[in-house]
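ENTRY TYPE: paired fold submission
RECORD: A
CONTENT: sequence, then structure tokens
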Amino acid sequence: MNKNDFAQNPPMGWNSYDYYNTEVNEAQVRANAEYMAAHLKEFGWEYVVIDISWYAVDAGSQSDKYQYLPFGELLMDEYSRLIPDPVRFPSAAGGNGFSVLADYIHSLGLKFGIHIMRGIPRAAAHEHRGLLGTDVTADQLADPANICPWNPYMYGLRVNMPEAQMYYDSIMQLYTSWGVDFIKCDDICREDAPTAHREIELLHNAIMKCGRPIVLSLSPGPAKISEAAFYAANANMWRITDDFWDSWPLLKDMFRRCELWQGKNQPGCYPDCDMLPVGVIGGCFDKKVERQSALTVEEQRTMMSLWCIAGSPLMAGAELTKLDDFTLALLTNRDVLDMQRCGQYAMQLARTDEYAIWVSRDPAKDRGYIALFNLADEERAVHCWVGAIADRGYKPYDGGRIRELWTGAEAAFSSGGLACLVPAHGARVFVY
């Protein structure tokens, strides 16, 4: 298998975290998958991803105090591999794991993903549980000094032991038997732990051995730009930011991050801007605080425009069954989504505190894109010179009219450039 064949275009899907945090259950996953199949699949949305704590008993029961229960019970098999909680995922009973749920999602023409944490469950080490294919036990493989600073579930591995690769191989064998298509591995991307770099390699090796094209996503960020080639060799997507939420300052800062990572896209390898906090979402740590995204209409168009022109994966965080007409239209603008697969050709031409200009091209369809972003707090004109596009090797303007992808309005270059009034925090994206 070739890792880069697993996702020829940046993955698009839904992730449970932004609305459900640690508490999603099987019925809710099925409902979101059904909505995706009915309303989003034809536009390229295909991954249904269950985020953190699917193996945790009573997850979310003390969400007023803790995001993750200290010393909470985690369910696992005799080989120290986490398994779904059958209270929340009834089809997992009887040793089925996620196989029944994955089969259902596949029957809808979609793909199935799960979140995992780097390392091995602490409880497995404390209980001296076994590992598949070896007499070494979890306590011997786990490094008790190698822990995640924000989550109490796991120990890192003693990565120089051959059993470290065996353990990752064993969990990948389990996920393969369930029909998993996508893995989001956490506490690994920004390499807080000294073993994270090696554990990325171990995960990659395990996927290459498992016989199934499982997309590997690394979290949280920011990823290290100095390790860009390493991420590309071992993963399909990697986070360039910590958790992204519906805040204008966070969104404005993404222009800096996307500029840093421009040119690092290639088929099968994508810098990841994180989930899209659109529609009805939950709080950062408490899904009971159900709310509409705090981003304005224009800010949401800016976010979608930047994610797409930069070629980032797209993972909607909304409760899909509660999508309003605006959010559905935002996520199904075919012309804007078309830019996403051309991220390797994207470039930021200019950026100040008040505006940014991005360009891209689609060689397959012989067309070019110009995105004008207003980063200021009031409406202003943003201007792009024709010469600046041609000088960077992009498709030259041929003198015809051009179309804006959000409004459908037509415009034309004049006096050697394209100028457009853009609302505060808004975007106008043109194709020619």
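RECORD: B
CONTENT: sequence, then structure tokens
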Amino acid sequence: MSKNLTSRTEDYSKWYNELVVKADLAQNSAVRGCMVIKPYGYAIWEKMQAELDRMFKETGHQNAYFPLFVPKSLFEAEEKNAEGFAKECAVVTHYRLQNDPDHPGKLRVDPEAKLEEELVVRPTSEAIIWNTYKGWIQSYRDLPLLINQWANVVRWEMRTRLFLRTAEFLWQEGHTAHATKAEALKEAQLMNDVYATFAEDFMAIPVVKGTKTESERFAGADETYCIEALMQDGKALQAGTSHFLGQNFAKAFDVKFTTKEGSQEHVWATSWGVSTRLMGALIMTHSDDKGLVLPPNLAPNQVVIVPIYKGQEQLEELDPTVKEIMSSLKAHHISVKYDDRDTLRPGAKFAQHELQGVPLRIAIGARDLANGTVELARRDTLSKSTVPLEGLAEHVAQLLQQIQKDLFNTAASYRDQHTTRVEDFEEFKDVLENKGGFLSAHWDGTIETEEKIKELTKATIRCIPLEQDKEEGVCVFSGKPSSQRVLFAKAY
């Protein structure tokens, strides 16, 4: 199979799809709209999962697991949530198949095996979890309840793309219960901050923290906090959301607690989640026409060593030095792979590791051995340097830190250059079509204006940034008064 990718400037969507498949991250499955995550792609997801899990537990959360199936009556209990997800739900109606008498060797649904109550395959777990919490929460002593689950969910999307939008995807979803509104709001904001820290420190993706407009909020939430990232093609991607649910689910499922004073009150709730969509964000933020570019903090292999040799004898001469290098790198907690396959030439190995985004490549041959040096190649800049074997592990450790910082700074520079303040609608349309990126513009706060701009331009309000000064102005579309700017963009 050819490793050459379509250029990003030629066809960004095609480039993305080819990269996901050729870098061995994922592939389409036999089930429409669903994906197979391959071992290399799953290894990246596992590193994301491990770091997020550590951060969740550090902030006091515990993991649990809840059923995949939600009885339809429970799903309907919180009306806004049910309405918001109804069109994406897969529903189980029968529990058995039988031989089809009209078509030997085929099966059909057994009409006698109809479920008494239909089951929704979870698109999100609020309903089943809040029904469970009713039995877990009686007193203020049971609060706060801080639970996370790692799971799969199903949203029957019609137009799918690997990692970015699939009918089934992997994610985590946190669901917490609190005694006061202030505590729940603080929790929702805290988890949005956790997501932002993870995105910036581990994925090297700069994000804007903000809140969603009323029409863009999670169904059933009183407030949705989010982190928004900008991809290389100038489109935004929602990288994480954290929802303040008020008492909506507590009231729908009658989850009350006895206060210290002895009165009965409904609890206050949050939910928050990120998914395998982060894989798409990672790919589209850093990668290039040669393939994947991975930040060292998330690379399955931070370093790959490729021996350059002729014949088995030369390879055996290199082995002791390579083992010493590997040992010293591992002592610095650096993940390293020795690619001593004899089925590929060094050039083919270089191309594969470039395609798969290994941050640093070490090449060592007989001449290097004689000189006490190795060749180091950076994946992000494609630059090469000759460095001494002595002190190599320390040098590599520092270089990996530098690569992590450089990737973030490059992405932040792109984001900043593609964030444009616009003052009127003609300028809005011109910048959106010819430059792209985030458009910082005044908005009058009405759903009517928001929907009209979306209808005319396909741009949506990505967020109302949290970190901004109040600024009086007039709406970019209606000309009505506005007290702050919001970020518009076309989005995934």
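NOTES ON RECORD B: The chain has 14 helices and 27 strands. The first strand starts at residue 26 and ends at 28.
STATUS: closed
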